[in-house]
Design a protein that fits this description.
Helix content is 62%, strand content 4%. With 328 residues, it is mainly alpha-helical.
Length: 328
């Protein structure tokens, strides 16, 4: 098959969609068991050293990030052929990640269906204005957008607000009873877990283990989501010119991470392939990119290069690239 465009690549990648039940089960256990074990270790260490317990909790945030990535795959129905198994695992993991499964799955589906579409911004993405939209704002409107795009807001205040507060209600889907059930059931699970921790350990494990682990994981997760779409030559188009497959292939990164962090993030860095064929289980993304070197060479960004992307804030429709405020 001659591969000419993004749609052709989507057809080629469809052969990698089939999950392996044993592999999926192993990946879940290889993440849940260390996460619980390190949590218990931090709790035991807390009686001797608060600082060491906090450090261990911070290290455990990487396993929590991986749990979120596994929950993400459940939302795409990729880990098991049976939809109910995917959904129930996703719901259970939502208690660990503070994320109501049904609400997040719907918002994320909207993200996949409208990523890079300037006409359909607002749900499941980072707010991004065009240069023209920004220049037409009032001074107060520009100030609000600048504050929103500030790294402190995006990667410190934002993750804390999103996971600790916003996820407690089904914002954006308030009229749908099933999303209320999802949010409230997740809240109940979180409350029960915290109550058990408090009963046996008081406030200390909550303050020095639960909060550091969750907050740092939230920050890492938001950073990954941000950098994988907010890069200089990403893809944004108005609805008439927007194309689903082009947006997937050219609007997502191949984020090259060290092997350890690639495993901890469930290979989510191969994001352009994930967006082009979201039914591929995460553990088969590496195989897809090994078999097709052309895909491996697209939209490559290293960790060092990604740090610069924080300075890009506005979409320049004329030059088709993200630009910093200073370029105005």
């Amino acid at each position: 098959m001659e591969i000419k465009n993004a749609r052709d690549w989507a057809r080629v990648l469809s052969e990698y969609r089939h999950p392996c039940t044993y592999r999926s089960s192993f990946e879940i256990l290889a993440t849940v068991l260390p996460f619980v074990g390190i949590w218990a270790l931090a709790w035991w260490i807390l009686a001797y050293s608060t600082i060491l317990a906090v450090l261990i909790a911070c290290m455990n945030s990487l396993f929590l990030v991986r749990l979120f990535c596994i929950q993400h795959d459940c939302g795409h129905g990729t880990l098991f052929k049976n939809k109910s198994i995917n959904d129930w695992i996703g719901r259970i993991l939502g208690t660990f990640t503070l994320t109501p499964y049904e609400v997040w799955r719907r918002a994320h589906a909207i993200h996949h269906g409208a990523s890079g579409n300037l006409t359909k911004r607002g749900i499941g993405d980072i707010d991004t204005l065009t240069v023209n939209e920004y220049t037409n704002l009032s001074p107060f409107g520009r100030l609000k957008y600048r504050l929103y795009r500030n790294p402190i807001t995006l990667f410190i205040i934002g993750p804390a607000y999103l996971f600790f507060l916003q996820n407690r209600l089904p914002f954006g889907f308030m009229k749908n009873i099933s999303f209320w059930v999802s949010a409230m059931a997740t809240n109940l699970g979180i409350f029960a877990s915290v109550a058990v921790i408090y009963t046996f350990g008081g406030l200390a494990p909550i303050l020095f283990i639960f909060l550091p682990t969750t907050f740092l994981a939230a920050t890492i997760g938001v950073w990954l989501f941000y950098v994988q779409h907010q890069f200089e030559c990403t893809y944004w188009e108005e609805n008439p010119e927007w194309d689903l497959h082009d947006a997937a292939l050219h609007g997502s990164l191949h984020y090259v991470l060290p092997c350890f962090f690639q495993w901890m993030t469930a290979i989510i860095g191969i994001h352009h392939i994930h967006h082009l064929s979201s039914r591929i289980p995460f553990y088969r993304l590496s195989k897809a990119i090994q078999d097709h070197p052309n895909l491996a060479e697209m939209n490559i960004l290293t960790v060092k290069e990604s740090l610069v992307q924080v300075n890009l804030h506005l979409w320049d429709e004329q030059n088709k690239c993200l630009v910093p405020f200073s370029q105005l």
